[in-house]
Design brief:
- With 109 residues, the protein is an alpha+beta fold.
- 43% of the residues lie in helices and 13% in strands.
- It is built from five helices and three strands.
- It has a three-stranded antiparallel beta sheet with strand order 1-2-3, covered by helices on one side.
- Helix 3 packs across helix 5 (99-108).
Length: 109
């Protein structure tokens, strides 16, 4: 008699951690699913700028996955950002989510 082992519903790997079994996804797949859901919530231009910021190393974690230092578009300034808020001009106005926050949300996912 063989016992069926729980597998990740995304990639099919065997799940061993209790939390992963309860979720149905492994940690890596869960992060990818969160990031994909996040991307769907924002405009494509914001996501593209956020991905470029991450790829260029323009965002650096300074307090775990909660607070990040971000270089401005011109490269002369620096902002502090988090997945919930940013102190750039667009972030202070609060009309839309700035791409710094999108980048922080991607890294925190």
């Amino acid at each position: 008699m063989t016992t069926s082992r729980p597998t990740c519903t995304r990639c099919g790997r065997t799940l061993t951690a209790t939390a992963s079994v309860a979720r149905g996804y492994g940690r890596g797949c869960q992060a990818k699913i969160r990031a994909a859901a996040l991307v769907a919530d924002h405009k494509p231009a914001q996501v593209a700028k956020a991905m470029e910021l991450v790829a260029d190393g323009g965002i650096v974690s300074i307090r775990g996955r909660r607070v990040f230092a971000v270089v401005s578009t011109s490269g002369t300034g620096r902002y502090l950002t988090a997945p919930q808020a940013c102190n750039c001009a667009a972030g202070r106005k609060g009309h839309t989510v700035c791409y710094h926050r999108v980048a922080a949300q991607l890294l925190a996912a």
